[in-house]
Write a structure and sequence with these properties.
CATH class of the largest domain: Alpha Beta
Shape: globular
Number of domains: 2
Number of helices: 6
CATH superfamily of the largest domain: FAD/NAD(P)-binding domain
CATH topology of the largest domain: FAD/NAD(P)-binding domain
Structural class: alpha/beta
Largest sheet: 7 strands, mixed
Bound molecules: flavin-adenine dinucleotide
Length: 354
Amino acid sequence: MSTDVLDVAVIGGGQAALAAGFYLRRSGVRFTVFDAQEEPGGAWRHGWASLRLFSPARHSSLPGWPMPAWNQGYPPAAHVVDYLTAYEKRYELPVLRPVRIKAVHRDGDLLRLDAATGSWWARHVISATGTWWRPYLPYFPGRDEFQGRQLHTVQYRAPQEFQGQRVVVVGGGNSAAQIVADLAPHATTTWTTKRPPRFLPDDLDGRALFELADRRYRELRDGRPDSGGLGGLGDIVAVPPVRQARDRGDLDARPMFDRLTPTGVAWADGRTDDCDAVIWCTGFRPALSHLAPLGLRDGSGLIPTGGGPRALAEPRLHLLGYGDWTGPASATLIGAARTARDVARAITAQLETR
Ligand code: FAD
């Protein structure tokens, strides 16, 4: 238990928390980062074996120190883990791990953070716990009857474990497209989506996506006509393996099945197919359970922020990463810096007026 009061407690230890740490260190405030994991790297430690970034290294950097170059195409997740590990050391960020913050409570002028190993008090809390830790699986008729294997994106590791099997992959986003591309040479793969998948133009990578998100942010902020950002263009980044799979004809999606049966799936036209496994690439929700005692969530399960990082109903709480609702592109490597900088500035200004 620490009775010293921190200016800022950062909960998380992935890229968003490190970007915050970079700016907090520069501003000279007293802060600690609490990370539930044993080692640095955040969610990048847990993706599937072939997972790669959707942008080159030079467009995937946190503030201050650019991600080292990766010469063979887009960098793999392990390169990001190495970068985050070195980044933390380089800036001597004070990270305590493993410390899982179980609950954040109001305690007079302060916020109290409770973990199994103790409690800490802070004037401000930055929550940067990501989404990987809260996989979302939709309810689907027959889901409990299916006798085969069901897994979510977070449990998928490598195609070899499905060698020769029949696999149905559900979902219209990047994870689904990349996993189908990975699996198709090894397994009989069926891709099924609620609406036809929409591929972004081949020349758009993460950098271009960030620029579009940024343009839209400025349009909305300045009251100019909304160009629609990414929405009008598509959902799936055509990274090289996805492009190759699409060109091979491995990425022809079928409309969603009606229900699961004990041995497979039943389609809307009444036909059925047996399969060995269903992989649900159905997304994530923000990992916010540690903030439950603050009672801030709305009906959608999110904490209202008005599109910025600060909780509207609790000005001492700041949310980083998670999705565009906490700042445009703030859940990406390249986009984390701007939101983190804004948060650090706002906190420092508030601490100075005390
Ligand atoms: P995380 O990396 O999830 O880190 C959160 C940290 O918080 C973890 O270390 C976790 O242990 C810790 N934590 C959680 N709860 C607690 C708690 N209660 N107490 C203490 N610690 C806690 N973005 C890009 O820019 N380029 C890409 O190519 C890209 N590809 C992606 C591919 C996939 C499959 C996914 C899912 C996302 C991708 N993203 C990409 C988006 C984003 O960059 C990553 O999701 C990234 O990991 C988000 O970083 P984060 O710091 O917000 O969260």
